[in-house]
Amino acid sequence: MDTREWLRRLVAFDTTSRNSNLGMIEAIRDALAAQGVASELTYAPEGGKANLFATLPAHDGAVQGGIILSGHTDVVPVDGQAWNSDPFSLTEKDGRLYGRGTADMKGYIAVALALVPEFLSLKRAKPLHLAFSYDEEIGCLGAPVMLEALKRRGLRAEGCVVGEPTGMRVVVAHKGMNLYRCRVHGKAAHSSLTPRGCNAIEYAARLICRVRDLADEFRTHGPYDDCFDVPFTTMGTNLISGGIAVNTIPDACEFSYEFRNLPGMSPDDIQGRIEAYIHEDLLPRMRRDHDAARIEIEAMPAAVPSLEASERDAITRLARALTGDRGTAKVSYGTEGGQFQNAGIPAVICGPGHIEQAHRADEFIETAQLDACEAFLRRLAGALAD
Ligand SMILES: [Zn+2]
User: Fold this and answer.
1) Cα 210 to ligand 1 centre (Å)
2) Cα–ligand 1 centroid distance for 138 (angstroms)
C-alpha cells in the first residue's frame, strides 16, 4: 500500500480524541503483522484507546538502539467547522490532499507505514521503531503510558523523530505546557454581612492577579529566547466559575491557569512562586476572615514538558544532515518530543505539512510534502544501513 492509500485509510478512521482509536491501531497492527512485525499495544487506563509500538529489528535481529518514528493517532474535532469536503474522506485537488489529520499528523504515519516493506528489505545495522500514540491533542496523555512500558522492557533508542507538521524543517525546541486547577474555599453569608463571610471570589481574584504579575515580570524581564515567536514564558487564567447569587458571599471559586515555559525554566520553580504567595500571604489573610479557609491546587495531567534538543545529539545531527536544514526553529506548541527527551530518548520534530493548515476546516497536506517526507525517511533508514 502506498502513502496515499495509507492516508486514505487512516483519515477514514474518525479518531477525534473523544473517540476510541482502536480501529486505526488494530488496522496498523494487522498490516504490520502481515509483514512479520509484532506490535506492542499499551492501553489507556480507562480503556478504549491504545498506543502501538513496533520494532523493525536490525538485520542481525538486534532490537536495542536505533531510531523511533513517532506520531499521534488522534485528531482534533471538526465540530462547527465549515468543510468543503467530507473531513473523513481523503479528497485530492490541485496537488493537495484534504481531510482531518492529513497534516496533523496522519500524513507522517502514512509515509512511515508505506515505507515499512522498504525498511524491512534494507540491510540495517540498527533497528527502526514505530511509536503511534493516543490522546496527544488533549495533553499528550498517551505517550507516557507507552514510554513507561518501554522503560519496563528496558528498550533503549538513540533518537526519535516526532513527525508533527513542520514543513520538513528540523524543529529543535518547544515550550512546556503546565495547567493547574485552583479551588478557593471561603465562607458563605448574606452579602450585607461581609464581616461574617469569607469571599472566595475576591481571594481568587488576588491569586489571579498574582499569576498576571508573574506573567508581566517574565514579559518585561525575561528570560528570552528570540527563536520563539513569543520569546518569553507566558502565563494566564482562562477559565473561572464561582458564586451562586448576587446577594450571597461566595464560599467557593474555581479557576484554571496555565503557563508555557521556555525550555531551561523549571515549571516547578514557577509554580513554587505561586504557592509561596498562597502560603505566605494570601492564606493567612483569608484565615483572618475564616479560620477554615483553604486553597487547593491540582496539577492537571495535560502537562507537556518542554523540549530542547542538543545540537550534539546524534538524532539532531542526522536530521540536519538529511534535510540540509541548519536553521534554529523553535515552536510554541507542545509535542510529545519533550516526553521522549525526559525518558532519555533525544528527540527532534520534523514532519510533512504545515501547522497553519492543522486544526482548521479544509485541513490539507501537499503531495509534495509527503514526497519530501518519503525521501527523508528513506535517507534516514539508509543511514542505519550497513
Ligand atoms: Zn499534532
Assistant:
1) 32
2) 10
Q: What is the pLDDT of residue 302?
A: 79
Query: What's the CA-to-centroid distance between 372 and ligand 1, angstroms?
Result: 18
| Closest CA relative to residue 273, chosen from 224, 221, 214, 217 | 214
Q: What single DSSP character describes residue 262?
A: P
Residues near ion ligand 1 (CB < 5 Å) are 104-105, 164
Tell me the catalytic residues: 74, 136
Contact 335, 174 (CB under 8 A): yes
- Closest Cα partner for 358 from 126, 198, 170, 163? 163
Q: How many residues does the chain have?
A: 386
Q: What is the pTM of this model?
A: 0.90
- Cell 494570601 locates to 282
Q: Provide DSSP, 182-248.
A: EEEE-B-EETT-GGG-B-HHHHHHHHHHHHHHHHHHHHHH----TTSSS-S-EEEEEEEEE-S-TTE
How confident is the model at residue 386, as a pLDDT?
67
pLDDT digits (tens, 9 = 90+) for 42-61: 999 999 999 999 999 999 99
